[in-house]
Amino acid sequence: MDPDNQKKESVHGILAHSYTVYFVFLIIGILLDLIFPIRLIPNQISGAIGLTLIVIGPLLILWAQRTSLAIRNKMEKLTRDDFKHGPYSITRHPTYLGVIFMVLGFGFLVNSIVIIAASIIAALFTKFYYIKREELLLEKNYGDDYIEYKKNTSSWL
């Protein structure tokens, strides 16, 4: 394929595709749960864990998106310190983490070991495929500042 005709890969493009992985694995988990309804956790405990994760997930995503928007509006070249605001001071991937919390939360809420397992598989696939691509792109775009941030900040938690 001609490089001039290829779409330029962006972090947002990678994010959009990775969310599809969670959706597909969630649907697969739901369908498999209909066939293999495995319940190992008492409903009250499972429900409480699920509800907590479902509440934390979107809040983390919202916090990450607001922080990203504030940083992007700066309009200058990003520096090492810009990567350390909001949830990005705790984890390099708060949006992914929020999505994981929501999907896992749903698995716990409906007390489905199969959906929980599918969520974990989706998270691992995302980590080893999409996050790897995203971080290479960020290193290319922001150089040593991002590499230094990466050394000092956890990927997930």
> Whole-number average pLDDT?
87
- Outline the low-pLDDT stretches: 1-6
Oligomer: single chain
For the record, give the distance between the C-alpha atoms at the N and C termini, rounded to a whole number. 39 Å
Which range does the strand content fall in?
Answer: under 5%
Question: For the CA atoms, what is the radius of gyration?
Answer: 18 Å
Describe the largest sheet.
Answer: none
Number of strands: 0
Order of helices and strands: HHHH
Tell me the number of helical segments per DSSP (H or I, 4 or more residues long). Answer: 4
Question: What structural class do helix, strand and pairing data support?
Answer: mainly alpha
Globally, the shape reads elongated
Which bin fits the share of residues in helices?
Answer: over 70%
Summed up, the domain count is 1
InterPro entries: Metal_cation-efflux_comp, Phopholipid_MeTrfase
Keywords: Membrane, Methyltransferase, Transferase, Transmembrane, Transmembrane helix
Main location: membrane
Pfam families: PEMT
What report would you give on this structure?
The protein has 157 residues and is mainly alpha-helical. The protein has one domain. The protein has 4 helices and no strands. It has helices at residues 11-35, 43-72, 94-109, 113-152. Helix 1 (11-35) packs antiparallel against helix 4 (113-152). The relative contact order is 0.18. Mean pLDDT is 87; it is low at 1-6.
